[in-house]
Amino acid sequence: MFTIVTEWGKKLRPYIPGGWWIARCGISSFALFFAPTILKMSLQALPVAPKVKSSPFADGIYFYGQSDQANIIGQKYFIFQVRGNQLKGALFMPRSEFYCATGMLSKQELTLQVNDPYGEDPPTPFVIALVPRSPIARGNQTLELTLRGYQAIATIGDNEQRLLAACL
Hints:
The chain is an alpha+beta fold and 168 residues long. The chain has helices at 29-45, 158-167; strands at residues 4-5, 11-12, 14-15, 22-23, 51-52, 60-65, 77-83, 86-92, 98-105, 109-114, 124-132, 142-143, 145-147, 151-152. It is built from two helices and 14 strands, in the order ββββαββββββββββα. A hairpin with a 5-residue loop joins strand 8 (86-92) and strand 9 (98-105). The longest helix has 17 residues, at 29-45.
């Protein structure tokens, strides 16, 4: 007869009836015999979660607005530059003042510190959540994220470039 010492120091005393090991340590022979099968079945039954990129945004400049068109009066816009997980940018409304912001990028959100344009008040914390671009996850594909409440705008105009340059 063999004695097996587990990594916790507990000794198991197995015997081999019909070729299967049964340990007398409070674990049923059913669990020992079927554990690999149960584990395999449970792993196969788990749904595959969509992959999220390690960084939702590659290094570059991004322009988002509450509208999908630039310069709509009454709409808020955010232009920012990403480098690694750091970002700098400007929050603004057309024909209004703008606020410079710096922050961190994570898989779930943009965590910002928004500066008072007049320098009179301390920076204000501000968070923008990241959400899937499409509500339907497609199998094992990488999930693309966007800013909650904002839409990507493809064309960056001269005014937006000036605002971003002022905040960099």
